[in-house]
Design goal:
Elements (H helix, E strand, L loop, with lengths): L1 H19 L2 H14 L1 H4 L8 H28 L2
Helix pairs in contact: 1-4
């Protein structure tokens, strides 16, 4: 349950940060994506690319949905 909740918390925090001050999060995401998912960022010019911001937002929204589902499943299995 803790892992599922941690994923949900991380996604919520990232989505909030994207609304208030996205700079550092976008730069950090860019570095990770370039290193581990280079093909995914080929079409973006930089972390400041508006389309990259939307890409990252969608990635964290998907993470949130997946984490919510995991939390729900764990709660259902509790006695």
């Amino acid at each position: 349950m803790k892992l599922a909740q941690d994923g949900l918390d991380t996604a919520n925090e990232a989505l909030e940060e994207l609304k208030t001050s996205p700079g550092k999060l976008l730069v950090d995401s860019w570095r990770v994506d370039q290193k581990y998912h280079a093909k995914l960022v080929e079409g973006f010019s930089s972390p400041e690319d508006v389309n990259y911001l939307e890409f990252v937002r969608k990635k964290f929204e998907k993470m949130k949905r997946n984490s919510e589902e995991k939390v729900r499943q764990v709660q259902e299995r509790r006695p």
